[in-house]
UniProtKB/TrEMBL annotation:
Record's keyword terms, sorted: Repeat
Lineage, top ranks: Eukaryota, Cryptophyceae, Pyrenomonadales, Geminigeraceae, Guillardia
Sequence segments annotated as region (Disordered): 111-131
Cross-referenced InterPro entries: MORN, PH-like_dom_sf, PH_domain
Polar residues biased stretches: 113-131
Name of this chain's protein: PH domain-containing protein
Organism: Guillardia theta
The keyword Repeat belongs to this UniProt entry's keyword annotation: yes
Pfam name, any one: PH
Residue span(s) of domain PH: 1-90
Length: 446
């Protein structure tokens, strides 16, 4: 249905191709004035559902199967129409239908508390004329200490549909029960935060949609004004969390999809990754294991897109403790780590089958250690198969991956040197014993 004509201050209708119909909009509640009647209350029926299609329009699914569309030229015009139609509805509409809008789509800022003014029962400041409707409810406009109410009353209490404008600029439109917000309703704060959904005992309670003035939004379950149960939170930068909440915090199983392509699937606690979970980066890196307070902490496996696979202990997002790293070049290190570096006792088997067992400092062979080269195959005279001989072996001190200090080097052919080393070279004080029995007491590599 396309609206046409000028908005009339005292009219809640507009023209349509169904000339006998007039639409009254009440922030998600729509009624259709369909036939003339002497009884004003019987001129209205409540439609079954309302779905907003964009900021400028919404569609109406009527009970008779017809679908109407209110289309405005701008968001401001749409809001002007709704405001005027609400006033008209409050003046003219007295139906029993309490129809709930279908819900659609998180971030109520964790540090900000939202005032639901009117949580305590308030006594009206002034009486007003009332009209008794067919269901026994009164329709009034009353002033309260915290604001102005226009809507239905029963037994002296706000009961049914009504609108409350708080002095602080907040506005609630929706259902009331015994003077408290209860059922479906919309609360718009003065800072333009808005909640649409279920209420109970003056609190957001049930399913609802919370949109924040900073562009964040939450859609899901509420308990006593807190996000609790399953819900979806979308930040204004496009990041999204979908999962479980407890007392207004992400807590339990959930999924975080980042706008940069990263994704986390796993357990959350107090808004942070905590427990077991899997994180996949857009770069191709992937971690699966334990988390604590938002960082990798505990036992986990990290697959590096360009460096290899680590399986072991973590602390504060760094390899720390015992772990095994399989590098893409074929090297394998198994041992202790500290602050993401090989530190302490470890064993490294290199791609060429050389093996080092000893101490590491800041990824370097440092201190005492034994280095063995790969076994060699030697073709012996008159032998059908080559003989496998053990490789060379150095046992001694190291400094930054070089033989440095005192050490012994044994060659596979039987030669041996024992003495001082400096930067991988034999240095002055040492004895070299050859396989033929000869020896040299002083040695210095050139």
């Amino acid at each position: 249905m396309q609206k046409s004509g000028w908005l009339q201050k005292k009219s809640s209708g507009f023209l349509s191709r169904w000339q006998t119909r007039f639409v009254i909009v009440w922030d998600g509640f729509i009624t259709i004035k369909h036939v003339p009647s002497k009884n004003k209350c019987k001129q209205f029926e409540t439609v079954s559902a309302v779905k907003e299609t964009d900021d400028k329009s919404f569609s109406v699914n009527c009970k008779d199967g017809k679908k109407l569309l209110l289309q405005c030229n701008s968001v401001a015009e749409r809001e002007e129409w709704i405001a005027a139609l609400v006033r008209g509805a409050l003046e003219d509409m007295h139906g029993d239908g309490d129809v709930r809008q279908e819900q659609s789509n998180i971030d109520k800022e964790q540090t900000q508390e939202y005032e639901n003014s009117g949580n305590l029962k308030q006594t009206p400041l002034e009486p007003s004329n009332s009209v008794i409707s067919r269901n026994g409810r009164e329709f009034r406009s009353l002033s309260y200490p915290s604001g102005q109410y226009v809507g239905e009353f029963q037994s002296g209490e706000r009961h049914g549909m009504g609108r409350f404008e708080y002095h602080n600029g907040n506005v609630y439109i929706g259902s009331w029960n015994k003077d408290r917000k209860c059922g479906y309703g919309t609360l718009t704060w003065a800072n333009n935060d808005q909640y649409r959904g279920d209420w109970k005992d003056n609190k957001m309670w049930g399913y609802g949609d919370f949109k924040y003035h900073n562009g964040n939004s939450y859609t899901g379950n509420f308990v006593a004004d807190n996000k609790e149960g399953f819900g979806k939170f979308i930040w204004n930068n496009g990041d999204m969390y979908e999962g479980y909440w407890f007392q207004d915090e992400m807590s339990g199983e959930g999924t975080i999809k980042y706008i940069n392509g990263n994704m986390y699937v796993g357990e959350m606690k107090s808004n942070l990754k905590s427990g077991k979970g899997r994180m996949r980066w857009a770069s191709g890196d992937e971690y699966e294991g334990e988390w604590k307070a938002g960082v990798m902490n505990g036992i986990g496996r990290f697959s590096y897109a360009e460096d290899g696979l680590y399986d072991g202990a973590w602390l504060n997002d760094k390899r720390h403790g015992r772990g095994t790293m399989k590098y893409v070049n074929g090297d394998v290190y198994d041992g202790m780590w500290q602050n993401d570096m090989r530190q302490g006792e470890g064993r490294c088997e290199y791609a060429n089958k050389d093996v080092f067992v000893g101490n590491f400092v800041a990824n370097f062979r440092e201190g005492w250690g034994v280095y063995t080269t790969a076994p060699v195959k030697v073709l012996m005279p008159d032998a059908a198969l080559p003989k496998v001989l053990p490789g060379d072996e150095y046992s001694g001190n190291w400094h930054k991956d070089k033989k440095h200090g005192y050490g012994k080097y044994s060659w596979s052919d039987g030669d041996c040197y024992e003495g001082d080393w400096e930067n991988d070279l034999r240095n002055n004080h040492g004895v070299c014993v050859y396989s033929n029995g000869e020896s040299l007491d002083t040695w210095r590599d050139c």
